[in-house]
Amino acid sequence: MSHPVHHKLDSTQMPDGCVLTDATAYSLETLADLFTRSFEGYMVPVRMTPADLSRMVRVDSVDLAASRVVLCHGEPSGFILMNSRGKTRRVGAMGVASELRGKGIGHQMMDHVIADARASGFLRIRLEVIETNDRARTLYQHLGFYDRRTLVGYERRPGRPPLAMEDTLHEVDPRDLAKVMEYEAPAKLPWQLSAMSVVGYTPPSVAYQLSDKAYALVADVRNHTVELLVMIVPHALRRQGWGRRMVDALVRRHPVCTLRLPPRIPDNLAPDFFLHAGFEKTKLTQKEMVLDLD
Q1: Rounded CA separation 291/93 (Å)
Q2: How confident is the model at residue 4 (pLDDT cuts 50, 70, 90)?
Q3: Rounded distance, CA 60 to CA 264, Å?
Q4: Which of 25, 62, 100, 161 could form a disulfide with 57 if both were Cys (CB 3.0 to 4.6 A apart)?
Q5: Do residues 95 and 78 lie in contact, with contact meaning Cβ atoms separated by under 8 Å?
Q6: Are 52 and 42 in contact, with CB atoms under 8 Å apart?
Q7: What DSSP state is assigned to residue 99?
Q8: What is the mean pLDDT of residues 11-23?
């Protein structure tokens, strides 16, 4: 493991004995443990494993050279993961150990990554924040971020019978799905729904094709829940029932599982389709926020 590079911070805002260091100096095991500890007591607790973090690095384009770890008295105590694509950076995750919250560490980390992105020539920073997390939203607004849109999620619980027709799902490479998305997906999708994210998925996640008419990407099954990460029907075939047939084929594949779309869907993107296909909107929503750097 390399020796961490320390970054100068405003000492009036940081607790004594705390410094900001490069995330490249830490192993995935250390970062995953810090991730879990930093979200203890959060409104949505997270248990991060090294394997989960490895997938996040791959799928979300985590830029470890731009990411930072707060070291307090020699102990990793906070972090911020930054993603980089083109001229845009994204705050992939940020957290602080419970005993150090409320001491300005989050603000200091954000100030640092904003200055670093601007100095490096990036044009904007994006992030998502739970809509009811007023404290975090206030911080981001203070730093100049503005709301771009609301992101929602959906769930389809087991019990509702699928359509009578029985379609066959065929597994495809996620790269093939990404190629379809490049031409057929709506413009300016959220970061985690983009074709670039889809390319990063590997087993046990599975991409499916239904008669060359509909495509989907699902994560591995956990606690009787299947995460539906992406679903798309080519433009020429929309409003012909292929989306509903894909949903029902997935229900047949996982008959006792809840089919869940995380809150990453723009609230104006086909809400009637999801409701007619048996989904209910989940309570958790996010705000996608943007800071322009130019």
Answers
A1: 16
A2: low
A3: 13
A4: 62
A5: yes
A6: no
A7: G
A8: 78
